[in-house]
Structure formats: C-alpha cells, structure tokens
Amino acid sequence: MASTDDGGGAKPVGFDSLRRLKSTEPPLFLSPSPDLSQAARLASQYLFSSLKPFAPKSPFSQLLTEGFDAEQIWQQIDLQSQPLLLSLRRHLRHFEKNPEDIQKQFDLDRDSDGLESESESFDEDEEDEVEEEEEEEEEEEEEDGPDDGEMEDEEKGNADGVEDKFLKIKELEEYLVDDEEKEYGLKKEKKKRKRGKITDKDEDEDEEGDEEDDEDDEEEDNELGLMGLDDDDEEEDGSKMGTARYEDFFGAKSTGQGQKSKLFGGSDDLDMDDGNNNQKKNTLSTHEKELEKLRSEIETMEKANLEPKTWRMQGEVTAAKRPKNSALEVDLDFEHNVRPAPVITEEVTASLEELIQKRILEGRFDDVQKPPTLPSRLPREKIELDENKSKKGLAALYEDEYVQKTGFVSTALSFSDEQKKEASMLFKKLCLKLDALSHFHFTPKPVIEDMSIQANVPALAMEEIAPLAVSDAAMLAPEELFVGKGDIKEETELTKAERKRRRANKKRKFKAEATKRTARKVQQNSVTNSAGAGGNDES
Amino acid sequence: MSSATVNGGEAATGTDIEAAAVQAPTPAATNTVPFAQKPNFKPLKAHEISDGQTQFRKVPVPPHRYTPLKKAWMEIYTPIYEHMKIDIRMNLKARRVELKTRKDTPDVSNLQKCADFVHAFMLGFDVIDAVALLRLDELYAESFEIKDVKTLRGEHLSRAIGRLSGKGGKTKFAIENATKTRIVIADTKIHILGSFSNIKVARDSLCSLILGSPAGKVYSKLRAVTARMAERF
C-alpha cells in the first residue's frame, strides 16, 4: 500500500474504501481476500489521519500499514484512540452534568463557524464514535480473521440484529397492547401497565436479567455508553433498551416469539390460557414444563408397570431368581423365631449364682422326674439267682421238679414267696403293737391259723377307754381280781366262834391228809416187802 | 456145667410143655405137621442175662479223692449195696473201687449206674449230688477242658478259672442253682452233672465265661433261659 501524504487524495480514497467495506456482505469477511484487506487498511489510514488533529499526544503522524500485521496496526490505533477516548468521556460527563453547555455549544456554533465546526465536531464526534465503533469492529475482524467468524458475525449481526430486534420489539409491543385492549379494553392503561409489567418483569428476572443487564453494561461501555447514556431514549422505548438482553445482541437462542412467550410467562398469573395456547417446543412456560414433567413421570410409571417387577416386589424369591449379592444391599426384615442368645454380663452371672445358692439352701432342685410308665404287662416274676451253695442235693431238686410236673403236690412256694410271707407276718405283728400303743386305730389281733393251745381267754376283746397310765391290772374290777368264794372276812373281823370253826376245819383237813399219807406209805411198804420177799425167795 | 444144667432144666421144661402140647393135638390131627405153641418164657434175671456170669466194673481212684472217699465211704457203700444190690469193694493196692453184680441184682443197668455214681464221686461231685445218678436215669456227667474252648496260657488261664468260679464260688453256684446242675471245676477240667438240656445251658454259660464275657452278662442270659424253661411248665 502506498502511503499517501496528501489528505485530499486520501480522503476520498479512504471514504470510498470505508463505504465499500460497509457495503460488503458479512460472510465475505470470513474468507481472507487481499482486496478487502487493502480496502480496510486504506480506510483505517483515512480514519487515523482524520482523527489525528484531535489526538495531540499520538506519536504517529499517520497510520503505518505497509508491512505491518494486524496486531501492530491495532497497536497504533490504540495508542491514538485511548487518550482520545478518555478526553471524549470527560467531555460527555461534563455535558451530562451541564446540559446547558450543549446549548451553549450549539449557540456558539450558530454564532460562529465554530458552530458548524462544533456540529461538525459533534458530527465528527458522532462519526468518530461511529467510526471508532466500526474501526473496532474492523480491527477485530482483521485481528481474528476467520477464527472469530462467529464473533464477527455476531457483531455484525448484532449491529444489524439490534435494529431488527428493535423493530420486532416494536411489533411486539403493538401486539401486546392490542391483546390487552381486548381483554381489559383500555389501551393507554394497558400500555402503561404493560410497561410497568415489563419493568417489573425486568426487576423480577433473576439470572437472565442480571446477566443481560451486565452485558448491557458491558455493551454500554464498549459502545462508548451510546446506548445506555440515552436515558430519555430508554424511558421512551422502555422495553427496548432496558430489557435488551443477551439474545438481542448475540441472538443465541431466542427469537421474538420466545421473548413473547417469556413476556407472557411473566404475566401468567393473570393469563394462564394464553400460556396454554402457546405450544412451542423451543421455550415452554413453567406450567408447560410442569405438565411435561408430569407426563414423563406418568410414562415412566406406566412403563414400569408393564415391565416385570423387580425381585423385591415378587413374592417368594430364591437365590437363583435374584442377582448375586442383591440381598445384602436390601434391608431385609424377617422374623427371628429363635430367641437371641443372652448377653452374659457380670450381673447375670451374679444373679445366677444367687439363685443357685438359695436353691441349695432350700433344697429345692428341679430334678427331672420320670413319668410313671404304665405297666403294659404283668411284671414278670424276677428270678433271683441265688449265689449260695444250694442246700438241697441234686436228687432232691429233680425230685421236686418231677413232683411239680406231675402235680401231686401243690406248687411249692419259691424262695422269694417264703421270705415274703415271713416278712409280712413280722410286719403285721409290729403294726398291731404300734396301733395298740397309739390308740388311733383299734385293730384286733391278727388271726394266725395255728394249731396251738390257747388259754381260756374270751373271744372278744373290747377296747377299754382308759388313760395310758392305767395298767391292765388296775383296769380289772375287784370282783374280777377276787379269787375265792363267799363272804371273806379278815382275821380281825372274825368272831370267836368263827375263829374256832376255822381252826377246827384246818385240823380236820390236816388229819385227813395225814391219814392218806400214812395209808400210801403202808401200801408202798407192803409192795416192797412183798417184792423183796419174793426176790429173796427166788435167790 | 451150670449152663448145661440150666439148659437141661429149660429143655426139660420145654419138652414138658412140648410133650403136653404134642399130646393135645395128636389125637386131633394126624396127617398135618404139628405146630409148636409160642413159648412163654419167664423174664431173665440180671444174673442170667450175662449167662450167669458176674460182671465187674473197676473205677480208679485219683489220689486227691482218696481221702474224701475214705470219709464218705459209708455213704457210697450203703446205697450201692442196699438199694442197687451191687457188690462194692475198694482195692487198696490197685487204688480202685470194684463193683460186681450179685445174683439178686434186679436190673442189668444197676451196675452201670453204680459205676457212674462212683465215677462221678471220683470226678469231684458230692455224694448227695452223685446219688441222683442212681435215682434218675436221665442224668449225665459231662467233662470238658478249658483248652477245648479257647487256648489260654498263664495269666489268662488263671483269670479264666477265676472268672468261672467267681468270688467265693458265687458265679458257679449261681449257674448251678439256675440250671439245676452241679459243676466241678478241677484246674483246667470242668465237669457238669445234670440232665441233658440243663447241661447244655450250663455249658454255654461256662463257655461264655471262659471266652471273656463278664459275669453280669452271663447272669442276665441265665435269667432269661431259666424263665423260659420255667414257663414251659
């Protein structure tokens, strides 16, 4: 590129190139073309030179584009533009604070050519601002080249799109107004209300609004606060500026329709039907979203019902029917039929020992007692083996056996029977004696079938109710004790005649006996004499 | 000589009978052969069975039974001589008891019975028990040795003998009483006196004892057997 010194020749060339750049289609910028780059360089040179008088501090007299890459060119522009921007901002702030200065400026401009110059300057300012903006855009384009095609697109698109959006927003507003007119019947009120709603909505908006506001701020900063500074514009347009969002500039997701639906969503408290009517897949209202959620839930549930149940829901499940180790993950609840083992603590052992000691002292043991077994058969006579030498001889034994077999004699009592008999006899005797002593039960003497001589005793023995201390002898009545006959008199009681009579009887008895004795003696003597005589004779 | 006379006597009697018999039918039948009537003999005496010869039995006396024999001689002698009518004498020189039949010995078997009786005494049985042999026919005396059942040596043998007798002989007595037999344990020889079935039972018990079963087990078996035997009657 040939650097032109003459401003007049450069000016139209630069302007032409600018115009050309402006006219080219945005996609053409994606592909690198030398023509476009040449045009861009020329345009930037023109701009630089035009701005030079307002930036005294810049070291470059003109923009050097030959043999320099995008970065270097940009650096040059930046060097110039940075102080320029600062000064411009200062001016703007000043004008903001003192709006009458603008008038003064205008007046001054009107008054003198300075006005034109002012206006020019103003225009130039504006132009500069616009140019700056455009410059920036171009530089950005040059810098990034094909990489930031999207960004460029977005920028360009935004540049174009903003205006589109605005237009669309306008249409939106009109539509909204008309609709609300229908509902409420008051247009103006609607407008205000709508605006209020929108502003409210803006305030209510959460992240999106914040993000967009932030981006708005950024955009404002980037664009020299052009958009944001116009408060009047903002108030006039209302939704347009204040509610400019990410989508407006970058156009990522939403179209006007989406915005519309969002706006509708904001006013959904009152207009549910409108929300329902809108059935677009791209952006759904919260109500629609809920419905969708419900629907999907229902679908999943129906699906689950159709499928076979999980093993947990089936009745009896064996190990083969469920996946491996799946029972470990599930919290199973089943009845424990076994009592859990008791935890042995010191207290338990102490209590046990106490119980044991008490029982031992009492002597109360819970011994298992065999239930009495009913004898199914008659108990067999237990044969007792006699371990002593048998008293009977073998012959006697066989004799007994033979006799038993033939049956001449009744069956001999076995050894045990004899002993039993003896034992029972002894016991009966003992019992009788004990009963007699105790007087509890009167039992007569046992009848022992014996051939024995019995004393002349009365057959019956009646019980004598007398105290123990009284002996049998004392129990007898005097008549029973009396031995003798008649009326007994003692010697002292006898009269003399009776005494004499007794003595006479005694004498008579004695005499009778004595005669008897002598007679017997005589007899014996005679016998012996005769015998002796006979004997003598014989010898 | 004597036999001839006897025969002669018999023949004479026979001929007498024959003559009598011949005399009777001769007048009846002349042409048929004369059939002799069935002879009717008187039973032979014990003496005559052996053709009038006396029979002897000799029973040797073992040295350990010599003194008991001397003590119990009269008890042996009396039943043999009085009831069995067998002559008995002790041959001191030969240390034998000799038995001989007499003329008036009623039965031939008496001699054998007496011999058995004396032999039983020599085995070691008491006279009272041995006398049963004289009185009952079916009694036998069986002997066997421990080594017939099981070969035992030394300590084992002594223990077996001890097991058989028991403490104070109680096991032996128990078997005797239960089976109505008499048992004599002479060192390694065992003699049992009794009837056939009883001997068998006693022998079984003794064999089980020899083989090593404890006395309690033998007792229980004995009880069962005797109960069964008693039930039969």
User: What would you call the structural class of chain B?
Assistant: alpha+beta
Largest sheet of chain B: 3 strands, antiparallel
What is the tally of helical segments of chain B? Answer: 11
Q: What coarse outline of chain B follows from CA principal-axis ratios?
A: globular
**Percentage of β-strand residues of chain A:** under 5%
**Which consecutive residue ranges of chain B, at least 5 long each, have pLDDT under 50?**
1-15, 24-29
Order of helices and strands of chain A: HHHHHHHHHHHHHHHHHHHHHH
Mean pLDDT of chain B: 85
Specify which chain pair forms the largest interface: A-B, 18 and 30 residues
- Please estimate the helix content of chain A: 55-70%
Q: Could you give the distance between the termini of chain A?
A: 223 Å
**Sheet of most strands of chain A:** none
Number of strands of chain A: 0
Query: What is the radius of gyration of chain A?
Result: 77 Å
Helix-strand topology string of chain B = HHEHHEEHHEHHHEEHH
Organism (chain A): Abeliophyllum distichum
InterPro entries (chain A): Mpp10
Keywords (chain A): Nucleus, Ribonucleoprotein, Ribosome biogenesis, rRNA processing
Protein name (chain A): U3 small nucleolar ribonucleoprotein protein MPP10
Itemize the secondary structure elements and their pairings.
The complex is a heterodimer of chains A (539) and B (233).
Chain A (H helix, E strand, L loop, with lengths): L6 H17 L10 H18 L18 H28 L1 H13 L1 H32 L4 H36 L2 H18 L2 H16 L3 H4 L1 H7 L1 H4 L3 H5 L5 H11 L5 H6 L8 H21 L19 H4 L16 H17 L31 H13 L8 H24 L33 H4 L2 H4 L14 H43 L1
Chain B lengths: L1 H22 L22 H4 L6 E5 L5 H6 L1 H12 L1 E6 L4 E6 L7 H15 L3 H9 L4 E6 H4 L5 H11 L4 H10 L2 E5 L2 E6 L1 H16 L3 H18 L1
Antiparallel strand pairs in B: 1-3, 2-3, 4-6, 5-6
Question: Mind explaining what this structure looks like?
Answer:
Chain B: Residues 138-211 form the K Homology domain. Chain B: It comes from Abeliophyllum distichum. Chain B: Its main location: nucleus. Chain B: This is RNA-binding KH domain-containing protein. Chain B: Keywords: Nucleus, RNA-binding. The complex is a heterodimer of chains A (539) and B (233). Chain A is an all-alpha fold. In chain A, 64% of the residues lie in helices and 0% in strands. Chain A contains 22 helices and no strands. In chain A, α1 (7-23) packs across α2. Chain B is of the alpha+beta class and 233 residues long. In chain B, 55% of the residues lie in helices and 15% in strands. Chain B has helices at 2-23, 46-49, 66-71, 73-84, 109-123, 127-135, 146-149, 155-165, 170-179, 196-211, 215-232; strands at residues 56-60, 86-91, 96-101, 140-145, 182-186, 189-194. In chain B, the strands form two sheets. In chain B, strands 1-3-2 form a three-stranded antiparallel beta sheet. Chain B has a three-stranded antiparallel beta sheet with strand order 4-6-5, sandwiched between helices. The termini of chain B are far apart. The model of chain B is unreliable at 1-15 and 24-29 (pLDDT under 50). Chain A binds chain B through residues 380, 382-383, 385-390, 393-395, 397-399, 401, 404-405, and chain B through 126, 128-129, 131-132, 135-136, 139, 166, 169-171, 173-174, 176-178, 180-182, 193-195, 219, 222-223, 226-227, 230, 233.
